[in-house]
Amino acid sequence: GDINGNIVLQKDEREGWGEDVDPVNLAEQSLLNKLIRRTLVRSRTEVEVLQRDPSSPLFSVKTFEELRLKPELLRGVYSMGFNRPSRIQESALPMMLAQPPQNLIAQAQSGTGKTAAFSLAMLSHVNPTNKWTQCLCVAPTYELAVQIGQVIEQMGKFCVDVKVAYAVRGNRMERGVPVKEQIVIGTPGTLLDWCSKYKHIDPKKVSMFVLDEADVMIAIQGHRDQSFRIYRLLSKDCQMLLFSATFEESVWKFAEKVIPNANIIKLKREEETLDNIRQFYVICKSKEDKFMALCNLYGTLTIAQAMIFCHTRKMARWLAAQLTQDGHQVALLSGEMTVEQRAHVIERFRNGREKVLVTTNVCSRGIDVEQVSLVVNFDLPVDMAGKADNDTYLHRIGRTGRFGRRGFAVNMVDSKCSMDIINQIEMHFNRKIPKLDPSNLVEME
Ligand code: ADP
């Protein structure tokens, strides 16, 4: 399956791929996105409203004032540097804040302002004088729950009577003791325990339920079932809000089961294209040969920054060592690193501290480094069946409309098999990938 353009690998399939190959973990990828995100992903497309509750507000807002928020909340929003609602917020906020409450299913890629939107909705929704839990928010992992909590605490910093608690593993309280915090964020298992086994939360008093990262959640079987069990404990008129970066069949099925008659809004993602990219392949016999070809490219081209993709961690380490020996400043990214370490490496690379980033599959997304002018597939992207992985190819090489800059992509071909893959990629994108002729390198620029 392909969620958010990432490859979802089941555990046993992963083993089939070999330990050394980095699988893409959805929840980690999502956390990484949050850690390295600094600004809103702007979208030029309009929000699509797919299904509307007949009584839902027809309008969208262009300013935060129009929402008539509590002054202390509005102050919190502005203190975060938000001047106006993002695209998705323009439509989502009036629906989420409407009276009577409206259910909402919203899909937009990461970075478009979903978390900020439901954080605002929860802060606006709670009655601070009531010292019990009124809003529940479910997230796939501890780290993601903490990220959401930080947004709420920052946005709500002037709402002094509104408090947040975390229902995450290890956060223990005495059985039967009710939680006083109005907003509780947690992972499905612990949140379910808090609502049923430990009776910290009376689910019937919860009037807003937020399910974030529904796609990630649903991909994890246990999480899906537990989320559903929490949902069944809630009262019938609890307001339901579901957010997802992608919307494939499994997400739809779940969403429609838990939230019939919801407002559904979607924001199309900006498509990646190969339009501004000049693609080539070079024939190499061995990894040493590939390394030589890389050095030749460097000798000829003026390269701002380069990203180099390898299939295995071992290969990535080897190449990084070679490049370092050759005098390059190299950043290395691979799956055995923690998400925080990865975020740190990406941050340094984005700031231009290193000019070359060698990586396995772990991070082909999330790094929209404008100054990357060369992408090298040291190893070509293949799926588990050994076929061309076109989606990964596009994510590595492609740019969205936001990045108009030209770039080069060089594919290293070391066997008949990898030549086949180049041919498959050519066919898929209907675009010729010519052989790189070193004598043409100069005129390429
Ligand atoms: P998502 O949940 O869709 O991934 P976030 O809510 O985390 O998106 O927002 C992405 C980034 O944009 C964050 O850094 C957030 O602080 C910022 N952001 C969110 N809404 C706005 C806004 N209205 N104006 C400016 N920045 C915003």
TrEMBL record:
InterPro entries assigned to the protein according to its UniProt record, in alphabetical order: DEAD/DEAH_box_helicase_dom, Helicase_ATP-bd, Helicase_C-like, P-loop_NTPase, RNA_helicase_DEAD_Q_motif
Motif (Q motif): 62-90
Keyword presence, Lipoprotein: no
Top-level taxon: Eukaryota
Reactions listed under catalytic activity: ATP + H2O = ADP + phosphate + H(+)
GO cellular component: cytoplasm; nucleus
UniProt keywords, alphabetically: ATP-binding, Cytoplasm, Helicase, Hydrolase, Nucleotide-binding, Nucleus, RNA-binding
A single MF term (Gene Ontology): ATP binding
Pfam families attached to this UniProt entry: DEAD, Helicase_C
EC number, UniProt record: 3.6.4.13
Broad EC category: hydrolase
Coiled-coil region list: none
Locations listed in the record: Cytoplasm; Nucleus
Cross-referenced PROSITE patterns: HELICASE_ATP_BIND_1, HELICASE_CTER, Q_MOTIF
Main localization category: cytoplasm
Boundaries of every Helicase C-terminal domain copy: 276-445
CDD domains attached to this UniProt entry: SF2_C_DEAD
The keyword Hydrolase appears for this protein: yes
Domain DEAD-box RNA helicase Q: 62-90
Domain Helicase ATP-binding per the UniProt entry, residue ranges: 95-265
Name of the protein in its database record: RNA helicase
Organism: Parambassis ranga (Indian glassy fish)
